[in-house]
Amino acid sequence: MLQNKSFVRKTKQGKVIKVVREHYLRDDIYCGASFCQHCDTKSARFSSPDSTILVLDTNVVLNQIDLLENPAIDDVVVLSVVLDEVKNKNLAVYNRLRALCSNTLRRFFVFSNEHHKDTYVKAMAGESPNDRNDRAIRVAAQWYKNHLGGPTKVLMITNDRENKRKATEEGIIADTVESYVKSLGQPALLDLLVQPHSSEDMEIEDMRPSKKKVIYTEHKPMSEITSGIRCGIYHQGKLRVNRYNPFEAYVGSESIGDEIIIFGRGNMNRAFDGDVVAVELLPQDQWHNEKTLSIAEEDDEEDDGIHLAPNSADDAPRITNLPQGSSGKDGIAPVRPSGRVVGIIKRNWHAYCGSLEPMAMPAGNAGIAHALFVSKDRRFPKIRIQTRQLGNLLDKRIIVAVDTWDCQSKYPSGHYVRTIGDIGDRETETEVVLIENDIDARPFSAQVLSCLPPLPWTVSPEDLSNPIRQDLRHLRIFSVDPPGCKDIDDALNCTLLPNGNFEVGVHIADVTNFVHPGTPLDSEATQRGTSTYLVERRIDMLPKPLTEDICSLRADVERLAFSVIWEMTPEAHVISTRYTKSIIKSCAALSYVEAQARMDDSRLMDPVTIDLRNMNALAKIMRQRRIDRGAITLASAEVKFQVDTETHDPLDIGMYQIREANQMVEEFMLAANVSVAEQILKSFPSCSLLRRHPSPTKEMLEPLLRTAASVGLDLDVSSSKALADSLDHAVGDDPYFNKLIRILATRCMTQAVYFCSGDLSPPEFHHYGLASPLYTHFTSPIRRYADVIVHRLLAASLGIYKLPTIFQDRPQLTSIADNLNYRHRNAQMASRSSIELHTIIFFRKRPTDTEARIVKIRANGFIVFVPKYGIEGPVYLTMRGDKGGGEWVVDEQQQKIKKTDGSISYGVLQTVQIHMEVVEPQPNRPKLQLSLL
Prior knowledge:
This protein is α+β, with helices and mostly antiparallel strands. Among the domains are: 28-185, 5'-nuclease (Rossmann fold), CATH 3.40.50; 199-212 and 350-436, CATH 2.40.50.700; 446-512 and 545-691 and 772-827, no CATH class; 841-932, CATH 2.40.50.140. β9 and β10 form a beta hairpin. The strands form eleven sheets. Strands 20, 21, 22, 23, 26 and 27 form a six-stranded mixed sheet that branches. α3 (80-89) packs antiparallel against α4 and α18 (660-683) crosses α22 (785-797). It contains 23 helices and 39 strands.
């Protein structure tokens, strides 16, 4: 049956056109009940005729997804009209709903009501789309009631009063979410409900009767924000909260080319870390300079002054009034643009992990306790929730979601989602790390695992006879990786040719031979984006049979690879480059330590060791040439743990040591990535996935320049080459000085990002850190999905395979690149959080005295870096209520903090002795405290 659907649409030119679409209706769309007398029951989800079938409206799904994910809620019909509306309004909720519908252990059934001849409804004249959709839901509920009949009860769930009233009039049984949940007789489920915000809730704000004062200013309407941004009155950017001071945030603004400082919760105006906000600049006499930035103390969040309305005199951070002449020329330190949030453009609310802080409440509903949830991450404010299970939750890590934050409310309101585990338990705290960083650590589904070839897997005769593959098993190929590495995705060879040149090969696991576009395995890898490396375990992007066996280039087994092979002169000049799918057999899987030991032992003259030395000689030339072009050798504080194999507890901790063997492998991986980038861009100029590193702005480099100047260094930042040369000459008496300067330089850089070549112009492709006009990721397809995409592009450029259709959809490619950037950053943050967690576990029973370097001066102390352990943290010079010891002032020009009487001073990069121990200033928030000796 064919229906014509028509609607009007406005074109980009402003014309209004009528669009007519054909809409097919069928009578063979099944209801999903196994006991149905009329339908095919092969794909049925509902099994009992005595069950209650729930038909949900759109707002119930959008607002109550946490409740729906609880196993107590089942036998749910998800109408296609609801699914489409949810997809348009909230993609994150849509993905969670789709996961529920595809989970075979849950009874959620998608019914295509929009294509069933008995449930499709036409819009009536004067009817809004929302009213039409509500009517479609009622019609579908009525159809289910008539269709199933018998003892089966069909219940429509809606919180919309008008929709419920009409349903009742039409003979449909309808109920609110809360009423239905109460009927289940499981009080704990009520904690999962998103509570509609009401003025009565305000009475529990401060545990005393409230006068309903306005604590925060109302957010501007979106129309005013949009026009304000267009006119330059407001500035748009993502809010980032300082990890050492939750009352200090920054919004990077392209419109003014600098970061805007947001001071105090009042000026943050209910914005969360990660929200995209609209900011209004404050008058210049209210702008702040570096002297006024302080480290927040653990109990600062209890200070009512933090929550005062914007422009209040008490909204400034608590610091000493500093005398003129204390820093800079004429005593004036460089001021930073300061502002306040006037509106939220896009919320970044997600699941928050932490614990409860019980509150004494006036007499209320029996069994309902009010509590403040304290996030484990100090950057987030406390969240007010109601719970019926307070006694069971006080010693647990739990997840809470935010529902709303009214301008009359000191805290946001939210609801309990689920319990993670006991506070302090390592498994629990590791799960917190994964949840906070949105890392999917669930086991791979049966559909995903069904895409894998059976084990044991071996190279087949078909692979050997395939003309697209070159047999390279005769080559002396080896891998060099971190110790204990099982997911080996790259191997190397270096063969001396008769003409005196070298044939050098980089051989990468041929993951795309097993991960095909459009399969559940590919979809899962697309979503996960990258593997995540925690201290004691790895969260894989692909299932272990692939990562550790089928694709891993282990020693003495034949494996499929994608190879980049150069002919190079002894001076490392490339004569020719070729790309081929291949079959290899690695002769050795070496660790960095083993490879280095071989190269260093002059007694060893075996073929593999000679190949290593030749490769290392070439790599050194390539590295120097890259540095001469302007590549910057940056540094990061990489920490290495020695972990107990049985308990997974840390036994030792120290800085990760970089050897020549590491640099050798890195050099050839970089070269392969550059070669592949050139090849794919030449073939596909508008749809290649590349990686760029934007040049840092002068404002971004300002903190580095100030720090360098304070210790007598004059850094030239006019180009990456100039900065690289300056960093090479930045040496002092301290052997760690140069590395510290490089770490500080790294922190001034932007993040490197993936992008679609069609979205930018070639000058924007540049990779600043590598001083390369083109770069991509090709060498780690086992652990990065970006490399999987690049393998497909490279194969298509060589005519091996046809380019998958997704590469013709640029918006979707851009969306994939955005997700890869998001996942890559989250994986990095999870790794750091895992290191912080294990650092606390390690030092809990090992208080330690050690040496540290000052890296940042603040008004009440400084941030130090501990080279031995790769740890960074605050050291306080003044604590709140500290009556003795005189005042401290910041000298901005010299980057020093000193007592007013001049008796003591501390400067940036100075060495200090500190004591480290784990303390718990607030319940359930252990931290590593650093204090001066």
